[in-house]
Automatic annotation (TrEMBL):
Belongs to the UppP family. The lineage of its organism: Bacteria, Bacillati, Bacillota, Clostridia, Lachnospirales. Its main location: membrane. It comes from the Bacteria. Keywords: Antibiotic resistance, Cell membrane, Cell shape, Cell wall biogenesis/degradation, Hydrolase, Membrane, Peptidoglycan synthesis, Transmembrane, Transmembrane helix. One of its GO terms (cellular component) is plasma membrane. This is Undecaprenyl-diphosphatase. It is found in: Cell membrane. Its EC number is 3.6.1.27. Pfam families: BacA. InterPro entries: UppP. It catalyses: di-trans,octa-cis-undecaprenyl diphosphate + H2O = di-trans,octa-cis-undecaprenyl phosphate + phosphate + H(+).
Length: 275
């Protein structure tokens, strides 16, 4: 029962922080300091990735009609536009996919530590503030996903690739990249959601390849519970973000990232000093 409660807490954290550009990794490493599941480290590493499938299903549910090229409610033109959207998503996923396949283990070994997480939280927090200040009062050049060109999509994909470094935040990196390229906030956020679909499924497959399917009954239960909670919370997080950015910019997330990065650095630095 206690382990289930811990998973519920982790699922809530994942569901909120996956879509808000504040780094789910940065929050999870802090939460896991106080909420430790009694499972193997290899399962915990896989849990942190697979629980994201619950989050991604929230995107599929919310945007199902828009993402479905076979919807009978769509005209032929709308179906073609949906197919074009998926082509852009696939192209935008190429940079992260290639680098993930070739260097995933290297990145985890060299960069998966609290100090890198803290640094990335702060760096991208500062970038959010700088980018928003630069674009203040300016009219976005791209106001619809249909206006995204292939070169623009690829560049956004490169920013998503940079998010493989822990603490960066996949949504944070892609939103920053899209804003720099002149997209409206709503376009940046939605295209980030769509890019997450292949990215998260791909990351989950990589983890499953390493871990295998040798789950115990309890591990299956904890994994499914975490995915369910992550799914439900993600529904609210996505809707909140899309409503929030109608009248606000992303600077508040930048300030929050900087504050969290400082907390992470001080906390783990103090632990290392006292050890």
């Amino acid at each position: 029962m206690l382990e289930a409660l811990k998973v519920i807490i982790l699922g809530i954290v994942q569901g909120i922080t996956e879509w808000l550009p504040i780094s789910s990794t940065g929050h999870l490493i802090l939460v896991e300091e106080f909420v430790n599941l009694k499972v193997s480290q290899s399962f915990m590493d896989m849990f942190n990735v697979l629980v994201q499938l619950g989050s991604i299903m929230a995107v599929v549910v919310i945007y199902f009609h828009r993402l479905n090229p076979f919807s009978p409610k769509k005209t032929q033109k709308q179906k073609m536009m949906t197919i074009q959207l998926w082509i852009k998503v696939v192209i935008g996923s190429i940079p992260a996919g290639v680098v993930g396949i070739l260097f995933n283990d290297f990145i985890e070994e060299k960069f998966n530590n609290s100090y890198v997480v803290a640094a990335m939280l702060i760096v991208y927090g500062i970038l959010f503030i700088i980018v928003e200040n630069y674009h203040k009062g300016k009219t976005p050049k791209i106001n619809k996903i249909s206006q995204l060109t292939i070169p623009t999509v690829l560049i956004i994909g490169v920013f998503q690739m940079l998010a493989m470094i822990p603490g960066t935040s996949r949504s944070g990196a892609t939103i920053v990249g899209a804003l720099i390229l002149g997209t409206a906030r709503s376009v940046a956020a939605e295209f980030t959601f769509f890019l997450a679909i292949p990215a998260m499924f791909g990351a989950s497959l990589v983890k499953l390849r390493h871990f295998g399917l040798g789950f115990t009954g309890m591990e299956v239960f904890l994994l499914l519970l975490g995915m369910l909670i992550s799914f439900l919370v993600s529904i609210f997080a996505i809707k909140f973000l899309m409503k929030y950015i109608q009248n606000h910019d992303f600077k508040v997330f930048g300030y929050y990232r900087i504050a969290l990065g400082i907390v992470v650095f001080l906390y783990f630095g103090l632990i290392a000093f006292l050890a």
